[in-house]
Amino acid sequence: MPEEDLVELKFRLYDGTDIGPFRYSSASTVAMLKERIISEWPKDKKFAPTAANDVKLINAGKILENSKTVGQCRTPFGELPNGVITMHVVVQPSLAKVKTEKKVDEGTRKHICRCSIL
To answer: Distance from first CA to last CA of the chain, Å, rounded?
Structure first.
């Protein structure tokens, strides 16, 4: 693979620590990056993603779509030649998991308050 086709990326986590840097082909998809993040995730972190859909990658202020390639997501503005691109990682649990947790919480609550209009 030609050297020009490789992009060096690191991933900044919510607490300021980094995963990487790693070199990727410009043809690598965002979904592939997310899988690598999950496999490299530090074991000592409180929040850890379990699936690619739990991870949001942000580059240049934009949330990256899973189907896009690294080459499509690169922003030429402000990049240094041979520089490392930092992408920010946001962990967001899947919606199904959150709904399940809410149902458990709602089941334990009892609504006693009643209003009367006279």
So the answer is: 79
